[in-house]
Structure to design on (387 residues):
């Protein structure tokens, strides 16, 4: 299972809207096939592993990080491939949260006489599949808020200078997070102040970097057209999420640079309505969003309770200054009893910095199944496109 989980992690960020799955076929103690999920429309991990194993799969054991699907999506059910291959034992890390599967794959295999075990490597698998679980059950991408601050809670000095709060090891880890996300978001203030490219830079590795969709929140069209994010030569895609307040000339100039302009409703403060943005991203099969915005953007996400995961670097530095910004801006919490409580947070050291990891909610709460077989796929169900 450790090998299957490693295979799954190796394709994270590259399989949307499908979850990244790893599978290994073993017979008589020898690995005879392995595979990982291909991009949407391509074979799933189980099918790839079984194809590599060929006739050697018969009578063998399949290790897979996610319950084999039992419905027709873009590809046929993996359970059919498992049965055709003659596998007699399947070990699954965790069940599939997709309502079209959710235990149905396990039931299908058991009904056919295959011995199935669930739970080997489950904790690691649930972490890996939290974004997919949230998207497939809510229709919105799983949101991770990431920021770096000093020991006294500042993300920049009183002059706005912020390069760099965290150390090189922390910044390298942040690029690995970009590599596994479907989209990354900043506000127009960050574009004006820092002129970021938001590409993924992994250094000297054999792995080709994945550049997530870049999103700029710019309700009024303030981002300069010469910003690096709008360079047509930049790898990947850039979108600008805006409102009707952006001029048609500005929108047309962005379009000429290859930028997609997404016009959305305004919130009561005249900014892009974040729930509408998340709905639009979910409909476009973006399952995970990394928010690297400044205090205004992070304040808006937290105020709307739209953050599912938190990753915070704390640098052993003091900058001080009443005007030096903190990470979470307006509107903020009025009284302490209204504060967002963080439970079960963990801490690691990354270079000279500390990393706080926290899950703000469980997108995958335990529940009892209400059916024994797979649900039929509805042509009207957006979830049918997954897996």
């Amino acid at each position: 299972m450790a090998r299957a989980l490693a295979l799954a992690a190796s394709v994270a960020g590259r399989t949307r809207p499908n979850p990244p799955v790893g599978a290994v076929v073993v017979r008589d103690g020898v690995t005879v096939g392995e595979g990982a999920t291909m991009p949407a429309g391509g074979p799933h991990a189980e099918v790839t592993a079984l194809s590599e194993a060929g006739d050697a799969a018969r009578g063998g054991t399949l290790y897979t990080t996610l319950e084999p699907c039992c419905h027709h999506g873009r590809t046929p059910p993996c359970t059919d491939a498992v049965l055709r291959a003659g596998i007699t034992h399947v070990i699954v890390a965790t069940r599939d949260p997709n309502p079209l599967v959710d235990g149905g794959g396990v039931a299908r295999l058991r009904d056919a006489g295959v011995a199935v075990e669930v739970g080997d490597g489950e904790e690691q698998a649930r972490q890996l599949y939290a974004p997919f679980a949230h998207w497939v059950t809510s229709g919105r991408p799983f949101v991770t808020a990431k920021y770096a601050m000093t020991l006294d809670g500042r993300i920049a000095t009183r002059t706005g200078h912020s390069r760099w709060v965290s150390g090189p090891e922390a910044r390298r880890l942040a690029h690995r997070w970009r590599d596994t996300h479907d989209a990354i978001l900043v506000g127009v203030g960050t574009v004006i102040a820092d002129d970021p490219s938001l590409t993924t830079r992994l250094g000297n590795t054999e792995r080709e970097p994945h550049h997530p969709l870049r999103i700029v929140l710019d309700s009024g069209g303030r981002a300069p057209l010469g910003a690096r994010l709008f360079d047509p030569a930049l790898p990947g895609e850039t979108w600008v999420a805006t409102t009707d307040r952006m001029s048609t000339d500005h929108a047309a100039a962005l379009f000429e640079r290859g930028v997609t302009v997404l016009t959305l409703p305004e919130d009561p403060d005249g900014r892009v309505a974040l729930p509408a943005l998340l709905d639009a991203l979910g409909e476009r099969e973006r399952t995970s969003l990394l928010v690297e915005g400044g205090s205004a953007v992070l304040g808006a996400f937290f105020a709307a309770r739209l953050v599912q995961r938190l990753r915070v670097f704390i640098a052993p530095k003091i900058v001080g200054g009443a005007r030096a910004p903190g990470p979470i801006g307006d509107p903020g919490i009025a009284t302490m009893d209204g504060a967002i409580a963080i439970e079960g947070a963990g801490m690691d050291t990354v270079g000279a910095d500390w990393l706080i990891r926290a899950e703000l909610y469980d997108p995958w709460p335990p529940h009892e199944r209400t059916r024994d077989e797979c649900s039929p796929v509805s042509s009207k169900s957006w979830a049918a496109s997954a897996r």
